[in-house]
RNA sequence: GGGACCGUAGCUCAGGGGUAGAGCAUCUGCCUUUUAAGCAGAGGGUCGGUGGUUCGAUCCCACCCGGUCUCACCA
């Protein structure tokens, strides 16, 4: 506020003038008896003069921010905005008195006022409050973008000079929320979606828990972590990339069904569907398998959609999405066969590499050692784009994760043979739900064989040393927990931000996060 | 990180080698049922930053800063 432009200077002068008049521009409280929506919804037009006079006796008090002022000499119209909407205020010199009326010239768009008066309908048909008195509640000294609205006869709202600069909107979300009507609705829906997910989980006996954000060792996902430092202990700590390993410890500890909404932090690129910190809900269910998780997942999402929209069908941009249960389920290998017409199981590793090269399908040479990773890569590159309607893609090559059980149909002796043959891909009971080409989550029949668990995690550490990025360091205490014994368990992670995007028709993750990360100015 | 595009008044935008325009907002005056209120007048800008080319740069060039989209990365 040191570099004052004319508008701010003017407002600060007004502030001083108000103080000189003995008016506190920042009083401590105001008795609000109603809100704009209740006034408008509750208004009934008087049928005769007697009734009209009666209505004048019913005084209400509302408070809100001034969004528009129309001065007409000895009368002024303004619109104030509260949590429930906008309402017009009619202030007349005769009613509020000369002194009070003259103070109004010191008020601006952006100031917050409280008004006491009676509801009436103006000549032009708008339900308004005829002020008997008003009080300044907060003087604003920053000029607010002035957004004008016109309501056509058809009832359509036309917005002029919308506050549209995306950068400013994100950096100063409080202004965005004040002047852009839909922004607030999106965030209200976000909270309702989260509440709905919690209700569904709670009604299925899942128990809400809290686990550490600051972790001495990170794991549970393949991602680069943020590093920070604890001074007293003089150790580096990681901001969690996932809470998976902690929730499994709680399953070991005897909680059979747990869930947690967590902020995960991943030190990666930013784009339309990625923010460095994002929200996931993970839930774990003892004695269940990944089919149980599919059922829960589709229930959670379908109910969230119905809670928000009243139906399972929504539009996302130009695309209609239907979340109605049950969702389609397809094996990864089937998805590849359907799309490309190749039976990936019959192809040798080199044939797959060859196929990808000749068809211009990108893959990271670092994964060429693993037929399983190549298959997963081929799937992502060629099939993802077609997955518009909700679908569970299941049975992933085991190389894609060290935390998941292999398929139940393998006998123990089969597995011994398969492991010896690098052309033999072992699949794991993992699925990912896809909606609108996006991975909406991740789920396993969780691995609880401590010997295999240790061996898979150690292999991953080795691969990390071999140059593959984003693998886990070894979490000995987690293995210890699995050694103590985790019952058969299934777990799910659901990307909350992306679900909110879909259900609010938002085109960027930044539209569903109040304060997305921005480079400092 | 690569590419394309953008950055001009508080907000939304136009302009373009001779140091800037509009609407809204602001200020002054008139107006006691207006509503994108109206009418008359006024003020407001290091044209993102730093260099360069030029007699002269907001405009051309380079670099930098910030952003948007996109590709890569990211399950």
Short note summarizing the structure:
With 521 residues, the protein is α+β, with helices and mostly antiparallel strands. 35% of the residues lie in helices and 26% in strands.
What would your notes on this structure say?
- This protein is α+β, with helices and mostly antiparallel strands and 521 residues long.
- It folds into 2 domains: 6-144, OB fold (Dihydrolipoamide Acetyltransferase, E2P); 184-327 and 389-511, BirA Bifunctional Protein, domain 2.
- It is built from 17 helices and 21 strands.
- It has helices at residues 6-20, 36-42, 49-56, 93-96, 98-103, 166-171, 173-179, 181-203, 244-252, 290-309, 332-340, 349-358, 371-382, 412-420, 450-465, 476-485, 496-504, and strands at 60-71, 75-82, 85-92, 112-121, 127-138, 148-151, 157-160, 207-208, 214-215, 226-230, 235-239, 257-265, 277-286, 313-316, 319-322, 328-331, 391-397, 427-435, 438-439, 441-445, 489-495.
- Strands 8, 12, 13, 16, 17, 18, 19, 20 and 21 form a 9-stranded mixed sheet that branches. Strands 1-2-3-5-4 form a 5-stranded mixed β-barrel.
- A hairpin with a 4-residue loop joins strand 10 (226-230) and strand 11 (235-239).
- Helix 12 packs parallel to helix 13 and helix 15 (450-465) packs antiparallel against helix 16 (476-485).
- The longest helix is centred in the middle third of the chain and has 23 residues, at 181-203.
- The two termini are 16 Å apart.
- The model has no long low-confidence stretch (mean pLDDT 92).
- The protein binds one RNA strand of 75 nucleotides through helix 1, strand 1, strand 2, strand 3 and strand 6.
């Amino acid at each position: 506020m040191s570099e004052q432009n004319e508008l701010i200077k003017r407002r600060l002068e007004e502030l001083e003038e108000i103080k000189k008049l003995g008016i506190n521009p920042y009083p401590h409280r105001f008795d609000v008896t109603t809100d704009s929506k209740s006034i408008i919804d509750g208004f009934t037009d008087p049928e005769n003069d007697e009734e009209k006079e009666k209505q004048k006796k019913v005084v209400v008090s509302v408070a809100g921010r001034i969004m528009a002022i129309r001065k007409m000499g000895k009368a002024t119209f303004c619109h104030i905005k509260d949590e429930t909407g906008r309402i017009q205020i009619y202030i007349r010199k005769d009613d509020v008195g000369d002194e009070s009326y003259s103070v109004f010239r010191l008020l601006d768009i952006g100031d917050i006022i409280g008004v006491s008066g009676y509801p009436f309908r103006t000549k032009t048909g708008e339900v308004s409050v005829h002020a008997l008195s008003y009080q300044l509640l907060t003087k604003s000294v920053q000029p607010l973008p002035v957004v004008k609205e016109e309501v056509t006869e058809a009832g359509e709202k036309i917005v002029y000079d919308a506050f549209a600069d995306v950068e400013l909107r994100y950096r100063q979300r409080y202004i965005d929320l004040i002047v852009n009507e839909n922004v607030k609705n999106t965030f209200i829906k976000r909270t309702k979606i989260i509440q709905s997910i919690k209700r569904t989980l709670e009604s299925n006996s899942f128990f809400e828990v809290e686990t550490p954000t600051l972790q001495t060792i990170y794991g549970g996902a393949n991602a680069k972590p943020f590093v920070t430092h604890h001074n007293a202990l003089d150790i580096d700590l990681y901001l969690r990339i996932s809470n998976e390993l902690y929730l499994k410890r709680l399953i070991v500890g005897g909680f059979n069904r747990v869930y947690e909404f967590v902020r995960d932090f991943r030190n990666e690129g930013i784009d339309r569907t990625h923010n460095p910190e994002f929200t996931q809900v993970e839930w774990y269910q003892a004695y269940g398998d990944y089919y149980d998780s599919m059922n829960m997942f589709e229930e959670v999402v379908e109910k969230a959609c119905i809670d928000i929209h009243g139906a399972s069908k929504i539009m996302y941009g130009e695309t209609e999405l239907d979340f109605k249960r049950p969702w389609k389920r397809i094996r990864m290998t089937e998805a590849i066969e359907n799309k490309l017409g190749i039976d990936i199981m019959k192809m040798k590793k080199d044939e797959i590499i060859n196929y990808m090269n000749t068809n211009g399908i990108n893959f990271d040479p670092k994964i060429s050692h693993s037929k399983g990773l190549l298959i997963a890569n081929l799937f992502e590159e060629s099939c993802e784009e077609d997955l518009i309607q909700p679908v569970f893609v299941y049975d992933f090559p085991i190389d894609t994760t060290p935390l998941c059980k292999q398929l139940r149909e393998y006998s123990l002796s089969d597995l011994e043979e398969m492991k010896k043959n690098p052309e033999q891909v072992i699949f794991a009971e993992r699925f990912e739900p896809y909606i609108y080409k996006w991975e909406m989550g991740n789920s396993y029949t969780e691995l609880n064989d401590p010997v295999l668990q240790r061996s898979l995690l150690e292999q991953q550490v080795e691969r990390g040393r071999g140059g593959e990025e984003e693998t886990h360091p070894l979490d000995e205490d987690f293995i210890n927990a699995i050694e103590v014994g985790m019952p058969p368990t299934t777990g799910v992670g659901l990307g909350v931000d992306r679900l909110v995007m879909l259900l609010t028709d938002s085109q960027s993750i930044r539209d569903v996060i109040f304060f997305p990360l921005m480079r400092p100015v």
